[in-house]
């Protein structure tokens, strides 16, 4: 794996984890939002990650099998942001403006504890990618010093 390829993989991981943190922040911010543009309570959002395959040119397809297996490393990418389809929490509050005829309000399906754990997980994954990125950067600097 080349230095630049390794740095690209680390950068894609940092970008994906940054997006996860943005979505977690949005979920926490809207944990009490009972009415959105579509008229219902806010639905929790989740990030879907997939492996990012390297683009291959024609000469790479013609190379031997061993090289094709090495080219499979390509980082990670955010493919979509989906809404959690779990049902809303129903809270009895007849004074709330969004209460139904029975006095219940549909509250978002956001669990603050789960969001906190997701934020910690994304933060740790970001830190790990940043550490690996800095190792690649340090190795490249040392390699350049050898050439002096």
Task: Give an overview in words.
This protein is α+β, with helices and mostly antiparallel strands. Helix content is 49%, strand content 16%. The protein contains four helices and four strands; from the N terminus they run αβααβββα. It has helices spanning 3-29, 58-62, 65-70, 112-146; strands at 45-51, 76-83, 89-92, 104-107. The strands form two sheets. It has a two-stranded antiparallel ribbon with strand order 1-2. α1 packs antiparallel against α4 (112-146). The longest helix has 35 residues, at 112-146. It is elongated and about 80 Å long. The two termini are 23 Å apart.
Percent range of helical residues: 40-55%
How confident overall, as mean pLDDT? 86
Shape: elongated
Class of secondary structure makeup: alpha+beta
Q: Report on the biggest sheet.
A: 2 strands, antiparallel
User: How would you write the strand order of the largest sheet?
Assistant: 1-2
Distance between the termini: 23 Å
Count the beta strands: 4
Strand content: 15-25%
| H and E string | HEHHEEEH
**Radius of gyration from the CA trace?**
22 Å
Q: Which runs of at least 5 residues are low in confidence (pLDDT < 50)?
A: none
Please supply descriptive tags for the structure shown above.
49% helix, two-stranded antiparallel sheet, 148 residues, elongated, single chain, 4 strands, 4 helices, 16% strand, alpha+beta
């Amino acid at each position: 794996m080349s230095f630049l390829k390794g740095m690209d993989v680390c950068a894609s991981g940092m970008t994906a984890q940054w997006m996860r943190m943005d979505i977690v922040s949005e979920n926490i911010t809207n944990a009490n939002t009972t009415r959105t543009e579509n008229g219902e309570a806010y639905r929790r959002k989740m990030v879907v990650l997939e492996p990012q395959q390297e683009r291959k040119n024609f000469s790479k397809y013609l190379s031997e099998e061993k090289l094709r297996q090495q080219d499979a490393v390509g980082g990670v990418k955010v493919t979509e942001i989906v809404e959690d389809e779990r049902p809303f929490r129903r809270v009895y509050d007849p004074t709330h403006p969004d209460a139904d005829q029975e006095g219940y309000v549909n509250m978002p399906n956001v669990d603050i504890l789960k969001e906190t754990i997701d934020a910690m997980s994304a933060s740790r994954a970001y830190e790990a990618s940043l550490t690996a990125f800095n190792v690649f950067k340090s190795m490249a600097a040392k390699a350049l010093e050898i050439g002096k």
